[in-house]
Automatic annotation (TrEMBL):
Alphabetized Pfam families for the sequence: Aminotran_4
Coiled-coil residue windows: none
GO molecular function (one): branched-chain-amino-acid transaminase activity
Cellular component GO terms, alphabetical: mitochondrion
Family recorded in the similarity comment: Belongs to the class-IV pyridoxal-phosphate-dependent aminotransferase family.
Biased segments, Low complexity type: 7-23
SUPFAM superfamilies: D-aminoacid aminotransferase-like PLP-dependent enzymes (SSF56752)
Cofactor(s) needed for function: pyridoxal 5'-phosphate
InterPro entries on file: Aminotrans_IV, Aminotrans_IV_CS, Aminotransferase-like, B_amino_transII, BCAT-like_C, BCAT-like_N, BCAT_family
EC number of the protein: 2.6.1.42
Organism: Acrodontium crateriforme
Lineage: Eukaryota, Fungi, Dikarya, Ascomycota, Pezizomycotina
Protein known as: Branched-chain-amino-acid aminotransferase
Transferase listed as a keyword: yes
Domain of life where this protein originates: Eukaryota
């Protein structure tokens, strides 16, 4: 397959330097490429096609819900400190071998990305802002001392895999569906000592994944550990229900690695997530500090729409990036861009909103709720897409979030705009067409 030209997108944000020497753009690599090391180069990719094709599962089948089924092929690329990047390989999907002493198994030297391949209603395959995922992938690798690479080359590898397997695994009769894309890098260095890895493996897989937006309703939250639960109305029938984290449970902290998409951010969150689900909630609303600053909802970015107490203007608010507590979500950036572009003035009968990135606390959310200024809330990310939030449990109280039907009106409109781009109903630079191989 011929290499595909990828133009990196501008994030539209500044890049201040932090105390650690990393910038918000995040590039200070432990292993910057030298002139003698081979760079990652998609044009060198070797192709070996499978001789044992896998069966494509039916949509929403048990195989899809289990999230274990991948397509026929994957892409791998090995790196060593001596030689740099080997030629990438597109080859049959399957297991690979690493030593028990591999760095990734002991020191969490692993990062990944999550994006989707969409089958458009016009019959074409598309990726959404793939360049931004690849740029973030590079930042995450830098944060855990993994090797550097050109993000455009990773984008070409992703496109090559999607072009190879897309026609079979996303047939044209399944317009409006998607496959999940997981680029990953792990340190495979055999040395057991705590040190910068000298060997790594980059790989990319395509997985069959359920549509999370169609299965987010959970049972009404029960009283928790004998707490007295107060509600202003009955819990909504749909939308995510969030359990606010306790002070002794912290997902990320200023100057840490919460802004990097590394495995070490996710494993420690599973206990809190399991507790939330055992209590009838869908996800954790992650708070930080004694002030209870609102950060993320599960593994998604969190948004609220409130009416400002002083100006009475509607504001779309989300946590800022500069402390590196939250992930720089691609969906988050897209929501902010579209809201600024299309909702700063009246549109489709909606009142204009001001787009605000700032710190805010649960006290701010509660005050807006109690004073009738809380209009709606939603989460934004790759897995749940744009997911309305219907309830938040905080310190013995359930806050019921307003919805109109199954969603707030702003979440519904933003979701519709994004889906139109992803599935080819709107011609937009964010939708990257993949020319599939048949």
């Amino acid at each position: 397959m011929a290499p595909v030209a990828i133009t990196p997108e501008s994030s539209g944000t500044t890049t201040p330097t932090t105390a650690s020497g990393l910038t918000q753009a995040g590039i200070k690599h432990a292993h910057p490429p030298s002139k003698s090391e081979a760079p990652l180069d998609a044009s060198r990719m070797k192709v070996t096609l499978t001789q044992t094709p896998r069966q494509v599962p039916e949509p929403n089948s048990p195989e899809v819900m289990a999230q274990k089924t991948c397509t026929d092929h994957m892409v791998t690329a090995r790196w060593t400190v001596e030689n740099g990047w080997d030629a990438p390989e597109l080859k049959p999907y399957g297991a690979f071998s690493i030593m028990p002493t591999a760095s990734v198994l002991h020191y969490a030297t692993e990062c990944f990305e999550g994006l989707k391949l969409y089958r458009g209603f016009d019959g074409r395959l598309r990726l959404f802002r793939v360049a931004k995922n690849c740029e973030r992938f590079r930042k995450s690798a830098a944060r855990i001392a993994l090797p550097d690479f050109d993000p455009a080359e990773v984008a070409k590898l992703i496109i090559a895999l999607c072009a190879r397997d897309g026609a079979k695994w996303l047939p044209k009769e399944r317009a409006g569906s998607f496959l999940y894309i997981r680029p990953t890098m792990i340190a495979t260095d055999e040395a057991l000592g705590v040190q910068r890895p000298k060997e790594a493996l980059l790989y990319i897989i395509l997985a069959c994944f359920p549509d999370m937006t169609k299965s987010i309703a959970a049972p009404a939250p029960p009283a928790l550990n004998g707490e007295t639960v107060t509600t202003s109305t009955k819990p909504a029938s749909s939308g995510l229900k969030l359990l606010a984290s306790n002070e002794d449970t912290i997902r990320a902290w200023p100057g840490g690695f919460g802004s990097a998409k590394v495995g070490a951010n996710y494993g420690p969150s599973l206990v809190a997530q399991g507790e939330a689900r055992s209590r009838g909630y869908d996800q954790v609303l992650w708070l930080f500090g004694q002030e209870c600053y609102v950060t993320e909802a599960g593994a998604s970015n969190f948004f609220i729409v409130i009416r400002d107490k002083d100006s009475q203007a509607l504001q779309l608010i989300t946590a800022p990036l500069h402390e590196r507590i939250i992930l720089e979500g691609v969906t988050r950036a897209s929501v902010l861009h579209l809201a600024q572009e299309r909702l700063s003035h009246a549109n489709n009968g909606l009142e204009p909103v001001q787009v605000v990135e700032k710190r805010f606390t649960m006290a701010d959310v509660i005050a807006a709720h109690d004073e009738g200024r809380l209009v709606e809330a939603f989460a934004a990310g790759t897995a749940f897409f744009i997911a309305p939030i219907s309830a938040i449990h905080f310190r013995g109280r359930d806050l019921i979030i307003p919805t109109v039907g199954d969603s707030g009106v702003y979440a519904r409109q933003i979701k519709a705009w994004l889906a139109s781009i992803m599935y080819g109903q709107e011609d937009h630079e964010w939708g990257i067409v993949v020319e599939e191989e048949v």
